[in-house]
Amino acid sequence: MFANAQSEVSFHPPNWDMEASHAQNPLDIICAETTHSLKKNLRKHLLFHGFFLSLIALEAVVLASSLSFFMEISVVSIALSGLFLTLFCYVVFTIFLQTQSVAAFYALKETFFDKVCTLTNYLEGQAESHILMGSCFAKLAEHIEAKECELYQHALGLSFLKLLPEKACFLLHWKKIYQFKEIALEASVSENIKFVKCFATSFEAHSSLANSYVMLSNLHGKILLHSSEQSKLRDKYLLEVKEKFQKAASLAVEEFKILKDFEPNNPWIHEQLALSFHDLENPAEEISCYEIILKLKPKDIDTLFKLGTLYFKLGQNARGLQVFADLKKLNTNKAEALIKNYGSNAQATS
Description:
Elements: H1 26-69, H2 73-120, H3 127-146, H4 148-153, H5 166-198, H6 203-227, H7 235-262, H8 267-279, H9 283-296, H10 301-313, H11 317-329, H12 334-339, H13 344-349
């Protein structure tokens, strides 16, 4: 497909970690500053919701007390009206604050972009600048990921929040952290697309873009994974996340197909394709990828096990048993683990 592909280019971000031993990585400093700004945004939202929920609770207590101790209609009406007014204001201000929050996240992204531009002498249209900026946005998303639970725990500086389990922290702040990481990873994708436009037939360019799509699909996939365990997530929003997940995974597949045209005998590329097809719930294509890998690495135990498992799950028991026999010849305990999947297709359909 790319018979006349231009020569391979190779760009590497500056090795900031190798700078003075006592100096902090400049990119880490920028990521920390961005994280701090995000923490301030979370603190504002926490105070807002805390204030209104406390006020609603107080008014509910006053209403209950008026019903118990005061039988006058006027007192009950005033308490009830106050409660409904507070609820109405809470809903209206929540919608407004949500809109402002998204705008604030994009402004925070632009601030991060400007700081990195100053650090790296970013030039629009320069390949090195785009791949470096893309990696910086990916680094920001990873930094937020590492600090995710801590972000909310320290939003008000309350030490007792450290006792909250990870899932509780997730329930408290998942949407806002998810939105900001999505903005960062979409920026990474955008920069890598610009890199591809500079070197359209570069293996590294398409590999970097594929990795960006994988990170974005993994972000959406994590939300879907959590949502299967959390009943409070809204179905409409969950469907939107699923659509984003499928789109990112599909785009990753397209990039890996391009890489496959560059290096058709590279097992790593076929492994990435298999993982992407697994995410897209396309077992037929996943099987095809593992069959190609086996031709390249005939005695790879992990590939044999994954392929045999897929055969059994799809009811292709004859092929699954052949893989089982191949694993037995290799004297591995994976064979015994594989045979436990025999009949899994029948159980799934019963």
